[in-house]
Amino acid sequence: MARTQGSHSDITGPKIREAALRLFAQHGYAAVSMRQIAKEVGVQAGALYNYTPDKQSLLFNLMQGHMAELQAAWDAVPRADGAVERLRAFTGFHIRFHLERPDAVFIAYMELRNLTDENFIVLESLRRDYENGVEAILKEGVEQRVFRIPDTKIATLAVIAMLNGVNTWYRSEGRLTLDEVENVYWDMVQKAVSA
Amino acid sequence: MARTQGSHSDITGPKIREAALRLFAQHGYAAVSMRQIAKEVGVQAGALYNYTPDKQSLLFNLMQGHMAELQAAWDAVPRADGAVERLRAFTGFHIRFHLERPDAVFIAYMELRNLTDENFIVLESLRRDYENGVEAILKEGVEQRVFRIPDTKIATLAVIAMLNGVNTWYRSEGRLTLDEVENVYWDMVQKAVSA
DNA sequence: GTCTATACCAAGATAGAC
DNA sequence: GTCTATCTTGGTATAGAC
Q1: Neighboring chain A residues of B193 at a CB cutoff of 8 Å
Q2: A3 has a pLDDT exceeding 60
Q3: pLDDT for position B4
Q4: What residues does A194 pair with on adjacent strands?
Q5: A54-193: CATH homologous superfamily?
Q6: Can you give the three-state secondary structure of A131-158, one letter per residue?
Q7: Contact B151, A184 (CB under 8 A)
């Protein structure tokens, strides 16, 4: 018979984060109760408070962790030669990273409004850092005369918005492989910013 | 002294829709209570139920109304000559229509998960109709050899995702006029699908 | 058509036993 | 670290008076 009591701090913590991530993505932060999360994990609601001071912190930590991972992963991608190749690398990276974490991505974009003002500022700053990295590539390409872009800030947001769209329709069982998806988007991104 | 009781059916109905639209967009459907909506309108919570059978119907009607308006407005745009001009017309239409109704747009994309299964199917169908209209333009352009698009379905979603992005950053007091925004996006859209 | 009052239920969070 | 039990608040929705 399974134990229903005892210490499980090393596994319960991650399980709570996983359950919260999935449930928040599926139903929305406000629509998910602490009791629901606890049920998924297999503990009572009160036990959650050994791992998070409150529901808001749970959300914030998930979002902050996602953005930190995103930035760290992009920073770890080897710097390619020239703006065109760097943009191509970014396109592939961004698509793959996002497709691997649909829940975290969805939450990071959708639950900003449910953050406290304090937490919101932190997330906005992380998002801006990431965007600035992309804009730097576009600016570089404009200087090198390989891109022609009326407004690099808007183009940055447009490229990211376009790439994020892949999460709304891609299914791994679908007709296209990841490589094909990447190529289709790269074709569009590249032409969109081309000189 | 202001009346606190009496009949106001002709103004209360629209006021409820406006308040719900704004509050849902700002905080999310699940996070907004009927009491909050009532307070904005200036009535008691119970009075809302003279206008909607329940909270879910209120959301559904807002979303359905928005999509119906969107489709009707696009259908009313005069059909331009050739795929390129039609796509340009679409780009301008889509940007302007969406910027005029940021709250409704936000809800239409974000609150799908809070619809009942039945209502979700209806909305998805309306969304697909709209997308198909865009894809038809792209296909036409491919046939006429003015566009070169590896996958018209993906390109449709990519173009719409890119254009929707404008709602996340545009402010009417900002440095760009609507015409300039339109031109910047048209430059990117046109190049992205170009042959 | 709106009010007040309320039924009923579920939420977040805490206390104290084990 | 988890449990059970509970406090307090606020949710949707309804009933009946005006």
Answers
A1: 188, 191
A2: no
A3: 56
A4: A147
A5: Tetracycline Repressor, domain 2 (1.10.357.10)
A6: HHHHHHHHHHHHHCCCECCCCHHHHHHH
A7: yes
Q: Are B80 and B86 in contact (CB under 8 A)?
A: yes
Interchain contact A26–B (C-beta under 8 A): yes
pLDDT mean over A132-142:
98
Domain ranges, ordered by start, for chain B: 1-52, 54-193
Residue appearing with tokens 């998070």: A52
**Nearest residue in chain A measured CA to CA from B31:** A30
Residue A42: CB less than 7 A from any atom in strand C: no
Tell whether B160 is within 8 A of chain A (Cβ): yes
15-74 on B, CB < 7 Å from strand D: 32-36, 45-46, 49, 53-56
Q: For residue A153, count other CB atoms closer than 10 A to its CB.
A: 17
| CA dihedral for B107, B111, B114, B117, sign (positive or negative) | positive
Q: Determine whether the interchain pair B184/A151 forms a contact, defined as Cβ–Cβ distance below 8 Å.
A: yes
Residues A8, A2: Cα–Cα separation, whole Å: 13
Quote the pTM value.
0.95
What tokens were used for A140? Answer: 């570089």
State pLDDT tens for residues B37-92: 999 999 999 999 999 999 999 999 999 999 999 999 999 999 999 999 999 999 99
Q: Letter for the amino acid at A155?
A: A
Residues belonging to chain B = 195
Cβ pair B191:A187 closer than 8 A? no
How much of chain B, in percent, has pLDDT values that exceed 90? Answer: 94
3-state helix, strand, coil in chain A (%, to 5): 75, 0, 25
Cα torsion for A68, A131, B87, B97, to the nearest 10°? 80
Q: What's the CATH code, domain B1-52? A: 1.10.10.60
| Cα B130–chain centre separation | 11
Q: Is the pLDDT of residue A170 over 90?
A: yes
Beta bridge partners of B147: B194
Write out the H or E segment, with its range, that includes residue B118. helix B117-143
Q: How many CB atoms lie within 10 A of CB A105?
A: 18
pLDDT of residue B83: 98
* CA-atom Rg of chain A in angstroms: 20
Task: Name, in order, each residue with C-beta under 8 angstroms of A85's C-beta and a sequence gap of 6 or more.
Answer: none
